[in-house]
Write a structure and sequence with these properties.
- The chain is an alpha/beta fold.
- The protein has three domains: 164 residues, no CATH class; 125 residues, no CATH class; 176 residues, Fe-S hydro-lyase, tartrate dehydratase beta-type, catalytic domain (fumarase), CATH 3.20.130.
- It is built from 14 helices and 17 strands.
- Strands 12-13-14-15-17 form a five-stranded mixed barrel.
- Helix 12 links the parallel strand 13 and strand 14.
- Helix 1 crosses helix 4.
- The chain is globular, with a radius of gyration of 23 Å.
- It starts with a strand and ends in a 17-residue tail after the last strand.
Amino acid sequence: MTRIAQEDLEGSLADAFQYVSHHHPPDFVRALRRAFDAETHPPARAAIEQLLVNSRLAALGRRPLCQDTGVGQVFLRIGCGVQFFRRDGQAPHSLQAVADEGVRRAYRDPHNPLRATMVADPLGKRANTRDNTPAVVHCELVEGDALEVLVVAKGGGGDVKARFATLNPSDSVADWVISQLPGMGAGWCPPGTLGIGIGGTPEQAMLLAKLSLFDPIDMDLLQAQGATCAEEALRLQLFERVNALGIGAQGLGGTAAVLDVKVRTAPCHAATIPVALIPNCAATRYARFTLDGSGPARIGESDPAVWDGIADRFDVPDALRVHLDQLTSAEVAQWRIGQTLLLSGKVLTARDAAHKRLVDLLDRGEPLPVDLRGRVVYYVGPVDAIEGEAVGPAGPTTATRMDRFVEPLMACAGLVAMIGKAERGPEAIESIRRHQGAYLCATGGAAYLMSRAIKAARVLAFEDLGMEAIHEFELADFPVTVAVDSRGRTIHAFAQPPGSN
């Protein structure tokens, strides 16, 4: 019998969630470097370079890789010989309560505060719980007398793109997966890993897909040795076919939408093939540790050599420098898709809640709290700043959620351009074309790098919305890619509006 203090589990979980907030797994960094070396498409290559620089800076600065610091997910493999107790003399708490306390301590850490994402009452007020609880806890009883723990901080961009289907036994799993990719768009922030769960029951297939994402990235080794089973053959086939779609990093085109494809299987009913698909984004964050009753886990540091040779800043010699405070319509009209811009000057921020309030005010004929004429809006909800920062990590959120607000804000309020991540829908693209504006992509998953280009920040409106309030940022060489230009052309091939070319 192994006696494990619940306080040791709480503390280990807190340390692990803090660690993964600013450290990529080494295998992910190595795979990203291979993808960068092989990439020849300039916009995608620039995006991968930003992710590598961000990875190094976040590890050195011990600040989040991404502003979406994720849902706290805890997977426990509990040996049958494990007994929990509390050093404070209380009766053992539920494992849910223990995991919640670990998450609470991690996300409220004053030295590296993490963004609280979880909302309660999902069909009602959707009030933020303020400490990112509750954690999502999965428990499995296994043989042995140790506790194995997998800690995952999973951002919303990947899980929202999850897919499930029950196929017929004669259907092709590979064909089904390939059919899903265009509709998933780029909101999951490629390059990353695809997890495929096959078999079992629907909920089992989804769990298999999720867990497969945290197996080591070893596609280079599999390609070298060749497949030895059906699962490995499927991995190789999907890796080649997915990357041949040309989605590329951040959906900007190129050859590296996925760094690996993982497959886990389970027995299933003879009449079905349950199949689940879940992507992992460029902010891949997880860690494993084991408790054996001897005390809390030591969450190890990665070898600094993983980042050897990676620069501490992103720079493109031929990028166009844009001064937002003097931006004109004629200048916007000169931008072309795929072009790298370095933005300096003042930009406004707004996400879903702020957009809704702005459009509601327009609908009622009431004045807006900020003047949007000739302005650029950045879709972002930053992490709280710490001493010495103008703002915490501040990467882009998915732009398509704001598509329905583009027309009123451009037509009635004079908005000229927007910054976000991933593609725009046909309606938004047509509004951008009609009003001779632009949509610019910032690199999803490079939030700490982005924040270092923000020199000042202040709240202008809707302060009650917290991270979704309207801020004004002062930028200095903030990197973006022109994704939709004033002619309505888009760099995202899977988002072309009808009649575009």
